[in-house]
Amino acid sequence: MDDEADDLADSPVEGPRTGAEAAPANDPPAQAVLRARRLCRVYRTGDTEVRALWEVDLDVARGEFIVLLGASGSGKSTLLNLLGGLDRPSSGELWFEDHCLSNADEDTLTRYRRAHVGFVFQFYNLIPSLTVAENVALVTDIADQPMTVDEALALVALMPRRDHFPSQLSGGEQQRVAIARAIAKRPQLLLCDEPTGALDYATGKRVLEVIARINQELGTTTVVITHNAAISGMADRVMRLVDGRIDRIDRPPRRLSPAELSW
Ligand SMILES: Nc1ncnc2c1ncn2[C@@H]1O[C@H](COP(=O)(O)OP(=O)(O)OP(=O)(O)O)[C@@H](O)[C@H]1O
Ligand SMILES: [Mg+2]
After folding, report:
1. Where do the structural domains in the chain lie, given as residue ranges?
2. What is the pLDDT of residues 29-78, one digit of tens each?
3. In this predicted structure, what is the pLDDT of residue 263?
4. Candidates 3.10.180.10, 3.90.650.10, 3.40.50.300, 3.30.300.30; correct CATH number of 2-260?
5. Strand partners, 242
6. Residue to probe by mutation, ligand 1, list 41, 50, 192, 245, most atoms within 8 Å of CB
């Protein structure tokens, strides 16, 4: 088990972008970082069974930017949590590169998350008693080849606030700290669950700009859940979930910058 965990932590970080941009939306990318087959997550509470995710097939290419849309309860967070190793499927297969996550034990999933995944949630989950720099250092202290705290803060344009406490920051600034914390370990995957859900228009755009920049400059494979369909314009591919299934996948003709989006 340790072997597999070490193996997971050592997986290569670099890789060329695929030619997936030119392919039809439903064709699997040539070089998938994530691969799901008939992925199901069923919640059972007493007599009730909820098929939160049902027989989902999915391939995510290295460096891809995916936007996940769908009504409340359609299974978006369930899928993101499985991709990030926060939860395990009820059935089906899930692979990260050539490592099977669907039958991994808790320790292996923990190491997978620690080595490869950065999470950003709607509410920033910063530690209020620590400064901005200290919040980011929580991650850089335990990662293998992290950026420095200041490098991560520079990427989100927050160096001037490094010694402030979260309560002294605006919502958008707090979210940018959360992004700095998520990317400081140079994760291969950045998984964002409604990252702009609590932010106003201008601040939301600023946060999206940071996410787009990280995707493009670091080549970080990125999945963003949103209720805001306008954000789809930023994506390489847009997936719509309906009742736990992928209802359709679209490939916008051109990736827009957040500045070009309006809603
Ligand atoms: N722990 C749980 N126990 C039972 N049912 C759950 C649990 N978590 C989620 N569900 C159910 O699974 C379905 C999918 O939930 P999920 O959180 O993935 O939806 P979502 O698309 O993220 O919705 P939202 O946009 O509201 O965040 C919902 O019907 C939800 O009620
Ligand atoms: Mg959700």
Report:
1. 2-260
2. 567 999 999 999 999 999 999 999 999 999 999 999 999 999 999 999 99
3. 86
4. 3.40.50.300
5. 245
6. 50
Predicted pLDDT of residue 198? 86
Q: Whose CA is nearest to atom 12 of ligand 1?
A: 52
CB atoms near residue 141 (< 10 Å):
11
Contact 214, 220 (CB under 8 A): yes
- What is the distance in A from the centroid of ligand 2 to the CA of 150? 31
pTM: 0.88
Instruction: Give pLDDT, residue 29.
Output: 56
- Binding site membership of 69 for ligand 1 (Cβ less than 6 Å): no
Torsion of CA 173, 121, 231, 244, to 10 degrees: -170
Query: Taking CA 42 as the corner, what is the angle to CA 36 and CA 44, rounded to the nearest 5 degrees?
Result: 160
Taking CA atoms only, the protein residue closest to ligand 1 atom 3 is: 43
pLDDT lower than 50: segments of the chain? 1-6, 10-26
| Ligand 1 probe mutation, 77, 82, 243, most atoms within 8 A of CB | 77
Nearest residue to 254 (alpha-carbon basis) of 237, 230, 241, 229: 237
Amino acid of residue 41: R
| pLDDT value for 151 | 93
Which class for 97: exposed (0-12), middle (13-18), buried (19 or more C-beta within 10 A)? middle
Q: Judge if the beta carbon of residue 49 lies within 6 A of ligand 1.
A: no
